Fold each of these.
Amino acid sequence: MSLFLVIFFLLACIVVWFIWNREVWKTPTQKFPEQWRKILHQEVLYYAALNKGQKSLFESKVHEFLLNHTIKGVKTKVELLDRLLIASSAVIPIFSFPEWRYTNLKEVILYPSSFNKQFQGGKPDSNIRGLVGYGFMEGKMLLSKRALREGFQNYSDKRNTAIHEFVHLVDKMDGAVDGFPDVLVQHQYSIPWLELMHTKIEEIDKNYSDIDQYGATSKIEFFAVASEYFFERPDLLSKKHPKLYETLENIFKQDMQSMQLKKKRVDIGRNQPCYCGSGKKFKHCHL
Ligand SMILES: [Zn+2]
């Protein structure tokens, strides 16, 4: 009898331990802060181009992302702007999949600028702007703060490091990072997508392409680089690479061409406090 009680007690302890340590997915219960809205409006062209209903969905996904993922700075301060830009980069590629959760990501680690394989900045080989962790780094994404901000400040260079890294995570969701996100590519597009990637990589190799050279590294990088182009310069992509544009539109289920990705004028005085909440005057901050 006493043995039975001991076993029962141990089992009860295990159950309590599991319940205690269970990861509970959090959903926002508070209103989306007005200041966050202003920052998104000003800094994220994609958000500014959405209609009212889409904006509110975007806000709730950004909020949810921030509730469920840690963002930590190494030798740099993580500001509200950084948090919102990271969350926006996460939401943009999967915006047409409202049930999407980055279950393969726990933490985003922000470095001041580019880093090397030992995660050191300022060295001759410090040229990594972002990466998705494997092995002992599983569940982590590393980003350069400078690259994160440049990705949103420069909206014509077809580059956005943070979106690039989140597209890798989308690709990784089926277990294999291969430039082929099984979760998004419908069966009928699978062979054409592989063939198209092959052709486009060849064009880059032969210098016939305006797609970033880095895209020719592999199919994995091609998918991420082409996605940066798709989300930042959809008009140009559809003009120069109509088939690629159409395929990415099918993969991400987003009609990017119909969006008006234009920088909005800031309705704020030079001497007023900046909308980002830094406490500085607008003229000394985001003007
Ligand atoms: Zn990459």
Amino acid sequence: MSKVGFVSLGCPKALVDSERILTQLRVDGYDIVNSYDGADVVVVNTCGFIDSARDESLVAIGEAINENGKVIVTGCLGVYEDQIRAAHPGVLSVTGPQQYEQVVAAVHQHAPKPAHDPYTDLVPEQGIKLTPRHYAYLKISEGCNHKCSFCIIPSMRGRLVSRAIDDVMREAEALARSGVKELLVISQDTSAYGSDIKYQSGDWHGQAYDSSFMDLCRALGELGIWVRLHYVYPYPHVDKIIPLMNEGKLLPYLDVPFQHGSPRILKLMRRPAAAEDTLQRINAWREICPDITIRSTFIVGFPGESEEDFDELLGFLDEAQLDRVGCFKYSNVDGARANELPDAVAEKVKEARWQRFMEKQNQISAQKLENKVGKTLEVLIDEINENEAIGRSHADAPEIDGQVIIENTDGLKPGDQVKVLIEASGDYDLWGKVVA
Ligand code: SF4
């Protein structure tokens, strides 16, 4: 049987691309292997978002060429084919993101397609997943219609293309049936879902649902599993889904990439919903669903960011009291419009601002976690180590947020949902014991 090695780099959206390619390769009868030397060909799914990700992708391609020699490159870095071929002239083929068919065709070309019957060889209903079997990413759209000045994703992944609601729900339901306990909804702009296909209507279990953010949330809420929303922008229509969180249909969790707190900088960034009164919106969400966890990411040191703008950002953090926050120091990305903006911020100023930002936010996050001590939380177990179990509460997305560390591991296994009494807290994580 022909064997394919696979290296998957980048964000959850790239991971979903990898899963689609792997699923098709398994349907075609290929064996997927974990080592370079046993593989007939190696596919490297790359990331090209920022310079460090590009470097990492080029290194990964080089490693695959050294170790195996037959390498097919795909993913976001694939749009820079010249750069890839200049660094690694030996690659067999280069394609961009979402070019699943071309990747599979390249594999067929360079490793003989096995004689295979997809009806007798087992491919799990949910396809091949790179995540543990109890959670999965659900990609509802590709591309983005915004023009944020620091971002090149629209030029790499194209304009917004939403999947129809019935297609999304079929996948979501198959995942739930296969044992997935948590769906992580991803896209570049989840709140814009369906706007490109005029919110076309679809049928799911005999009921009409629009391909809209609201109906998607309503339908996903019927599955009876955790549903976590990522990449949501603070538009007024988002308010309407917050009651579903209060009713327990969706996790009370919103990942909203605010990026800054100064309206002037948000305008320079050309951010979606930059004109909205974000603080008012956050307060309204908390009024409807007091338990909501709000996660966000920010950029410090954007060109033109003055001391006043930065102070405004710190003031925003004070007021917003966000639960989970990531922060990046701005850096130019090849091809982004922000590169042409005047008044670049010096590296040491960026560093100092990043430190101040993190200090402030760490205090806020730590306080928020401390408030959970003594409470009993529902926790989904991710892994069991020698002496402890690692899980996540409603407030924790995998990879990016904190964890709940549990000492009494007896009988626990990944995918279990248990009640945990929280006994201690740190800057990011919680510690507790299973009580039910
Ligand atoms: S919303 Fe902005 S940052 Fe996000 S993908 Fe679109 S252009 Fe890039």
Amino acid sequence: MHYSSFDYTASVCLNCDRTNSCFVGKNMVFKWRGKPLFVRHRSSEEVEDVRNVDMSSLRDPEQDTDRVVKEDWLVVIGVCTHLGCVPIANAGEFGGYYCPCHGSHYDVSGRIRKGPAPLNLEVRGLAYCTKSLMCIYCMFMPVPYF
Ligand code: FES
């Protein structure tokens, strides 16, 4: 599935200080339909790393290019595909997300790389950031998650 053709029916734009809220490497969490929505600003090195992964090594093979619209922004549901815990960002063996419940490791594309989870984190939208505004698009309006 190519997410550039996804039907984005709602969006939210937040004022932000690019040097603070939107900096590269930061994972932000919003709430979407009662679930955590992870929005991650990826570095060019992170993008290069996940795009050089051998597809045959993946349990749920998906190209990174099929999981994002703008390469530096990943938007996924923050629910582990094993039994539904919320993974920790910037953790685990692949630098993406780690679910400590039973030890699932996801990469910076949200793809399962190690542990019991059977599937990648679910892709749910796109995001981009200007000098003072961060916009997130997904099927329904997300709200800040605290
Ligand atoms: S719920 Fe995440 S590893 Fe089991």
